[in-house]
């Protein structure tokens, strides 16, 4: 592989020189020199025989075993990714200089060749082949992630070769997840997370390209569907069962991100019917997560969703008078506290979350009302704090039991 990439870069430099593209020729020659010097096997042998360098490491108290057994092997593996990156970058520049379609054809041929090599050596569990296949996948898939965004933002047309190449990236994901059992578990987890993200972008791109759906609707609804699949169904596939917790954590974290994005849309769009539906589904999903795993971050988002929907409803009503604000300030906290009296709560701490959320909401909205309308009438303030005191007393009576 080392000699192969040296030949590729030197050939490209020579081709650019023939066509009088001297800047590109010099760039690829510098890349060739870097590959030759940095990745040369002779450089490793010199390092092994150079006692002065070894003594220098000893002076700085380096752990030799750690350096030789962990650091160097990881650097060697990283060189494959760097090599593939330079390789595809070289192909891109050459193709761009002659014809854009050449690049897609080159990547298609390389992909088929590596897939055939992968399955031909599959039973042998050849570490080098797996490393080449995995490194090429990372660079190749990152490249097509870039193309997805490029075609999406510039609204460019795609050809059938691009489609085949992009579907091959999904095929590569499947191959690695199902057959690559050589890599350490931590690295396989990282690859799995990246694969889930890549699959999401892949589906998002093609749905948007084919159906021209508004981005915010497509993004939120697609992630809602994939989150449920990632969380509940992917871990049930036997080959992916080892990624059970990884899949769930990834799904939950992105669930929070998209939920926050949906909350932002709720207050920044004129038509919110689609957002109301997505928030309702996220609400149910987070309740399910909390009651199954006692996840209080999910439970916090459940309460936050209720408060935001409640607030949006009263904003839509355009309330202005004092009586309407009393209803707005105290209805939701009263419902929260009453719920804990009427329904048996599964987890004890839920009572505290529900009560304190309601009380904080009422206090915050009282202050908002007073300073927005500058209403410091003694009668109004007395009524507000009388009802607030009743809420606090009701909360105290209930929470004292625990």
TrEMBL record:
<feature type="transmembrane region" description="Helical">
    <location>
        <begin position="378"/>
        <end position="397"/>
    </location>
</feature>
<feature type="transmembrane region" description="Helical">
    <location>
        <begin position="129"/>
        <end position="152"/>
    </location>
</feature>
<feature type="transmembrane region" description="Helical">
    <location>
        <begin position="102"/>
        <end position="122"/>
    </location>
</feature>
<feature type="transmembrane region" description="Helical">
    <location>
        <begin position="215"/>
        <end position="234"/>
    </location>
</feature>
<feature type="transmembrane region" description="Helical">
    <location>
        <begin position="272"/>
        <end position="289"/>
    </location>
</feature>
<feature type="transmembrane region" description="Helical">
    <location>
        <begin position="246"/>
        <end position="266"/>
    </location>
</feature>
<feature type="transmembrane region" description="Helical">
    <location>
        <begin position="353"/>
        <end position="372"/>
    </location>
</feature>
<feature type="transmembrane region" description="Helical">
    <location>
        <begin position="296"/>
        <end position="316"/>
    </location>
</feature>
<feature type="transmembrane region" description="Helical">
    <location>
        <begin position="191"/>
        <end position="209"/>
    </location>
</feature>
<feature type="transmembrane region" description="Helical">
    <location>
        <begin position="6"/>
        <end position="39"/>
    </location>
</feature>
<protein>
    <submittedName>
        <fullName>Uncharacterized protein</fullName>
    </submittedName>
</protein>
<keyword id="KW-1133">Transmembrane helix</keyword>
<feature type="transmembrane region" description="Helical">
    <location>
        <begin position="322"/>
        <end position="341"/>
    </location>
</feature>
<feature type="transmembrane region" description="Helical">
    <location>
        <begin position="158"/>
        <end position="179"/>
    </location>
</feature>
<keyword id="KW-0472">Membrane</keyword>
<keyword id="KW-0812">Transmembrane</keyword>
């Amino acid at each position: 592989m080392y000699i192969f990439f040296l030949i590729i870069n030197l050939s490209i430099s020579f081709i650019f020189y023939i066509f009088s593209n001297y800047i590109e020729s010099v760039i690829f020659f510098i890349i060739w020199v870097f590959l030759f010097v940095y990745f040369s096997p002779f450089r490793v042998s010199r390092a092994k025989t150079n006692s002065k360098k070894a003594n220098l490491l000893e002076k700085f108290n380096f752990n030799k075993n750690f350096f030789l057994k962990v650091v160097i092997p990881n650097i060697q593996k990283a060189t494959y990714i760097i090599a593939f990156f330079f390789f595809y970058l070289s192909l891109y520049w050459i193709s761009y200089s002659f014809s854009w379609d050449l690049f897609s054809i080159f990547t298609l041929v390389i992909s088929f060749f590596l897939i055939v090599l992968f399955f031909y050596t599959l039973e042998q569990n050849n570490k080098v082949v797996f490393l080449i296949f995995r490194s090429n996948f990372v660079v190749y898939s990152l490249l097509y992630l870039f193309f997805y965004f490029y075609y999406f933002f510039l609204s460019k047309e795609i050809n059938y070769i691009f489609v085949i190449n992009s579907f091959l990236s999904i095929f590569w994901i499947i191959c690695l997840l199902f057959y690559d059992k050589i890599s350490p578990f931590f690295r396989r987890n990282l690859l799995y997370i990246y694969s889930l993200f890549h699959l999401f972008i892949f589906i998002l791109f093609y749905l948007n390209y084919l159906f021209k759906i508004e981005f915010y609707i497509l993004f939120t609804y697609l992630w809602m569907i994939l989150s449920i699949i990632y969380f509940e169904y992917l871990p049930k596939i036997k080959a992916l069962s080892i990624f059970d917790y990884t899949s769930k954590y990834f799904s939950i974290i992105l669930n929070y991100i998209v939920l926050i994005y949906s909350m932002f849309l709720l207050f920044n769009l004129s038509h919110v019917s689609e957002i109301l539906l997505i928030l309702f589904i996220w609400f149910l999903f987070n309740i399910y997560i909390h009651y199954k795993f006692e996840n209080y971050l999910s439970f916090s988002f459940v309460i936050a969703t209720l408060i935001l929907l409640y607030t949006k409803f009263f904003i839509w009503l355009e309330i202005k008078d004092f009586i309407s604000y009393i209803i707005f300030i105290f209805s939701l906290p009263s419902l929260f506290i009453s719920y804990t009296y009427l329904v048996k709560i599964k987890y004890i701490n839920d009572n505290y979350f529900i009560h304190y959320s309601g009380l904080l909401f009422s206090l915050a909205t009282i202050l908002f009302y007073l300073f927005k309308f500058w209403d410091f009438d003694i009668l109004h303030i007395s009524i507000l704090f009388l009802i607030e005191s009743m809420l606090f007393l009701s909360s105290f009576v209930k929470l004292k039991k625990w």
